[in-house]
Amino acid sequence: MASQIVPPSQTNLLSNATSWWWKERHSIGGYEDVIQELKRHHVEDEITDDDEPVPTRESIKHSWFRASQFPSEVHVELLKRQIIPNPYVAFNEHEVQWVGETEWLYSCTFDAPSLDTSNATRLTFDGLDTLCDVYLNDKKVLEADNAFRQYAYEASGDGETAFKPEGNTLLLHFRGAKSYAKQQEAVYGKVRAGSTNLGDPSRVYLRKPQYDWRWDWGPELMTCGPYRNISLTQYAVRIEDFNPKTSLEILDGTFKCSLSAHLTLGLSPSALNSLRDCAKFPLKLEVSLLKGENVITTESVSLTKFSIEELAVQSPESGTFLLPLRDALSWGGLEDLGVEPWWPVGYGSQNLYEASVKLIAPEDVTLDLVSKKVGFRSVELVQEPLEEPDQYGTGTTFFFKVNGVEIFMGGSNWIPADNFLTTISDDRYRQWLTVLKDGGQNMVRIWGGGIYEPDLFYDICDELGILVWQDFQFACGVYPAHKSFVDSVRKEAEYNVTRLRHHPSIGLFCGNNEDYQMVLQWGDVPHLPAVVIYEEVLPEVVTLLTDGSIPYHRGSPYGGKGWDTSDPTIGDVHQWNIWGGKELPWQEYTRLGGRFVSEFGIPAMPSMKTIEYWMQGVDPRERYAQSSIMAQHNRAGAFERRFAITMNENFRLTSDLPKHAFNTQVMQAEAVGLAYRAWKREWRGAGRRYCGGVLVWQLNDCWPVTSWALVDYFLRPKPAYYVIARSLAPLTIGISREVVQNRANDRPKQFYEYGATRSVSAKLHVWATHTGNSEVPETVKLDIQYFDLENPDWHHQQEHSSLVSLAENGTTELGTFHVPEPPSLHGDAYNRPGTTPSGRVVASARLLHPESGEVLARFVDWPQPYRLLDIPDAGVELSTTESEGTTTIRVSVKRPVKCLFLAADADGSPGEFEASRWSDNALDVVPLDDQVVLATGLKKDAKISFQCLQN
């Protein structure tokens, strides 16, 4: 067979922005109206920028405008043409709702110069948001209704084709998502779908990002457009799919690495017939494994052993053929060639390899080439019976084991980083995930109400060692299960599992977010139709396409009898009885854990720079915490009352907006910090893994807002980010203060009482937790010191500071210590007769290297509630040095300081994404224990300032 019979495959992206045009649909009519609008665009042979009409709200109905970028979204185009105001500023969100209530058109022209009627030609759409009719050369060729999957139109080359060698016209007609969802609701019935601040319940009927309908942290912005790439492929034979399945086993303490290459070829009918005429399959594969530029191994595989007649399956839609080649090649013993495991961050190196396959015709002509980055690792979700009970009972574990190592997972929930997905640059994705990793986190949960992220997101997770908990995209609703819906979901799942399965960072596929929990807590929904999706379709797809190498979990949360999603002894839990639910004090996190806490959190206002951004054009009289503009940028349910409760219990109230905003951040940091410390403490050791992980809600924002985010929309970390980072360090020390009262009461055990109940003493429970593979001395020195907030001359060191041994990969209880009581104050100083003066005492616990005295871990515990404290001026001193773009700041104090938050005054405008990075921040500092912070990315001549908790 001559090689020219099978020409090479060619793929081109249709991403040239100057060839794409958009407009609002002028009239809502039938097919002829859409085509007529398209023809208006071609009145002139060539349109230059000078020819374009002036864009107005009315002119976009009558004229086409060049797309500013591709992929594209309508809102982004309207913003760049200044047709709509910025919905992230002021109250403008409400001025742009019309965009989601009309219909939109995109068009482009393209050539198919290699068009050969014997070849197959394919248009592939990686992401259409969402209801889209596709016309090629005036012929409707595709109807899309799922934003989460890939669509393709293909001409087999065997018969008529809609493609032309030159001047092909592609028209995308996007119809209204809101109206369609309501139409489906009228057919299938109105259902429950979260609270009223989670968007209209009809959203469940359309496979579109659910947060577009509004969420309790996001705006209502009904986007539409071709938000991911569109490509043109022409081929006779191509590599349809390449699955380089890696495997890692542990035998006699040694890692055994292997790889199996599974492929599916695509063939045009003409190519299939040509190959059938040959005595043997004349093509071959060349499979290679590389580390950087170094070839580890390569092998050629003849395809003569595969039978075309037995394996070829024809597509009923396009007439092309698929040829699955399972186990085309298998390699074992790769560890002998230097292949090493991939590890999550903190446990080893993120060894990545390139697996590539060439499809080669006679005369060594390469027909197609596909390569993927892979890593060798095993991942298990361990759910085994616990023999020893904790405070909740026994039940089962819920933790991850990677490469045979039991790993405590600390991380965040991820929502889409913008409502306008096409504005998220590659660099911005990298910044976000680097922020997560630098915050000591090793897991990110991609929440089920957003999107399946682009390939780049998972590539970066692979590089950084971040394990991914991937929700399928269902959130807080009673989803339907009629046949067409389930069929669409199956294709969505098959596409995304196939796309993601080679990433070593994928640690779990999860069926949904809170759908089981919603039904359970409502109590009035007799049936959840989508159980067929979560318990049959999705596990079938995951098992089939991953061979069981990636765990599947039905939903989050899920566990317990009868879908008891709040059972702390089984499965994972979402802990919302603090802030939401029962609205308990945050100090109760210590008794509200579970085997794996995959959601919890408390909101806080963002940086004042971010607040200034959304205040643009707003009446200055709105600059107070309870104003209408602050409500516009806070979507949490009952946030006024919930903030009032948590703030009033713990902090002195203030009308000063910057101080109030900062106090909400201190509150968030204290609350989630306590949760991380308390629940990580329950990583007790082998056989006693009472808590396997903690994922805070949430890492990021999709617009400027007051929310649960640790880092706001502009990449500005809040204090909680740094507190969590310290809590997730490989070696940590924790303190839990227990105040002894003169009578029983229902107040948090950390609170000092001065009313009907009187506090008589206090004790500290101290522990240390060691995770990761960092080296720690066999013994460390425990050092505990005490400071009086109101008497700077009083300082006490714990008498029996001693050497202690720490357990590996677990928690060590270090003891319980009585809090010393400083003497009463003299003169006119404020005393509280009849109560323990330990309510003035700040305790500092440190783990020190037994020889060098280096601080290995530290924690500072303050008496609570903070509103009762008279916090003195700490006498903060900052000394700075500069070296090669890094600023070193040494912080020293004369008296204890709470949540010392450093900032650079000249560090960008409100609307700029944050460039500066701080190695640590939000510090609790005590005398005699200076702390050092490294800052990078500061602007020249930036002045370092700070704020801290003050009463």
Write the layout of secondary structure elements.
Elements: E1 10-13, E2 20-24, H1 31-41, H2 59-62, E3 65-66, H3 74-80, E4 104-110, E5 120-125, E6 132-136, E7 139-144, E8 151-155, E9 168-174, H4 177-188, E10 230-235, E11 237-251, E12 254-267, H5 269-277, E13 284-291, E14 294-302, H6 308-311, E15 313-314, E16 321-331, E17 353-361, E18 365-374, E19 379-382, E20 399-402, E21 405-407, E22 409-414, H7 426-438, E23 443-446, H8 455-464, E24 467-471, H9 483-500, E25 506-510, H10 515-522, H11 531-546, E26 552-553, E27 573-575, E28 597-600, H12 608-614, H13 628-632, H14 639-650, H15 657-680, E29 693-696, H16 719-727, E30 731-741, E31 759-770, E32 779-788, E33 795-797, E34 803-805, E35 810-818, E36 841-848, E37 855-861, E38 877-883, E39 886-892, E40 897-904, E41 917-918, E42 923-925, E43 931-936, E44 944-947
Parallel strand pairs: 22-23, 22-29, 23-24, 24-25, 25-26, 27-28
Antiparallel strand pairs: 1-10, 2-3, 2-4, 4-9, 5-8, 5-10, 6-7, 6-9, 11-12, 12-16, 13-14, 13-17, 15-16, 17-18, 19-20, 20-21, 30-31, 31-35, 32-33, 32-34, 32-36, 36-37, 38-39, 39-43, 40-42, 40-44, 41-43
Helix pairs in contact: 7-8, 9-11, 15-16
How would you describe what is shown here?
This protein has 951 residues and is of the alpha+beta class. It is built from 16 helices and 44 strands. Strands 3-2-4-9-6-7 form a six-stranded antiparallel beta sheet. Strand 15 and strand 16 (321-331) form a beta hairpin. Mean pLDDT is 93; it is low at 42-47.
